[in-house]
Amino acid sequence: MHHHAYLWTGPKAHFDQEALRRPPHPDPPPAGSRPELTQRYREVAAEFPTSDLPPLETAYWLLKPHSLVRGTWPDPEPAAAWLSDQLTAYARRFASEAQREGGRLAALVHSAAERLLSGDDVSLGFYLERPSYLSLALVTCSPNHQNRELRCPLAP
Predict the structure, then answer these.
(1) 96 Cβ neighbours under 8 A, 6+ residues apart
(2) Fewer CB within 10 A of the end CB, N or C, for the chain?
(3) Sign of CA dihedral 153, 126, 14, 21
């Protein structure tokens, strides 16, 4: 088991495009469907696997291009340290002053390390200066406990 890190920042309006944040249904719309439905399916099917947008389900980061992986660690502690570094780097930009508080950030990192140790994923999100958003994720891989069929993005 190991852990992959992912980071995304961007306009909140782009983050809110939920259709692009979920994998397409395995079956395309049936023949005779409305053209706009078929076109939207094709768009999502083409964009989801290549888009850097955070998926709605954390485990689905593993379906994204391996180039989006920001780090990989066999143990939870260095993965949590990466998270701590990111929180420290972005904290001054958090829209909420309460989210910048050092004790709160330390508690998030401690909780993340515990969840990773048990094989769970970690996903955190923060509003930055408007209208931006920060998404941080640590995904357990090989296997992922939420979806064992997902393959490692760094596997040959």
Answers:
(1) 126, 127
(2) C
(3) positive
